[in-house]
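Lab manual, section 2.4: Encoding a predicted structure.

Procedure: take the sequence of the chain (313 residues), apply the prediction step described in section 2.3, and record the output as structure tokens. A sample record is shown.
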Amino acid sequence: MFHVPRRSLCILIIAMGLAACGSETTQVVDRGFRVANADPAFAYGRGPIVMVDEGHHNFHTAEGRYRPFAELLRSDGYLVRPLHAEFTPDSLARGKILLIANALSEENVTNWSLPNHPAFTSAEINAVVDWVAEGGALLLIADHMPMPAAAAELAAAFGVRFENGYAIRKGFESPRPPIIFDRASGGLKDHEITRGRFKTERIESVATFTGQAFQAEGDFTPLLVFGPSTELLYPEVPAVFNASTQRIDIEGWYQGIAMHYGDGRVAMFGEAAMFSAQFVGEERQPMGMNSPVAPQNAQFALNTLHWLSRLLD
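Recorded output:
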């Protein structure tokens, strides 16, 4: 989740880790966030290469809003490498895991209002699908409008239908509180990712911060499932909701799934801040892995990479 412009145009100051959109609340990276990783999966710098897509106007990058995520992975032994190239067989051969977080089309970099356009060409989508089928691992993350539209065609190639809206708890349009997925309520589902390698890595709850809701078909396993009193809003202008805004009940829809695809693996999530650590607004409220309501988000992130790396079966 991130705060977006109420105007149709805004300047996204990616290099500074800010979203400067008129009077909108800004968000900055929590550069002091650290996780004490007591049992790294790999020796430092000896793990698989995680390619972080930075070639599609991504709102989240390894040294930007996803720096805490990148540092978390490095603490686990992964090699984190930015990927600025188009997706081709040659470029994808550079690593074992591809992380795509909040790609944007060129047309929507400074204008998030409708219409929202795809971020990837058909050739790139085919290259990713083939790479996964041959044993690659994809972590695809697309937050709320306009990010789902940017990644919708790629998700659809794996049988997933991203929705270009905002997933919220009913009655909480502004401010939008986190949504908690936990085992007790049934929102957090059992899977290798939620079980982890050891009892100490077992996940009981995960917090997300708005994002989208999506549906899927075929052979997949739900991870995060929306409960009652949740809805998806489809504004024409980002974050502007009124009586005419279309609304859909999303109980039973997904915000996280995992699947096997050919010889490869795919994990998809409809919210990005859950894997970040940021401060929001003048009061510098924590949002993401540094939030008090998300004490297990960091371990959930590691478990997801462990499953994509085939450490969890």
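Check your result against the sample. The CA atoms of residues 37 and 75 lie 7 Å apart.
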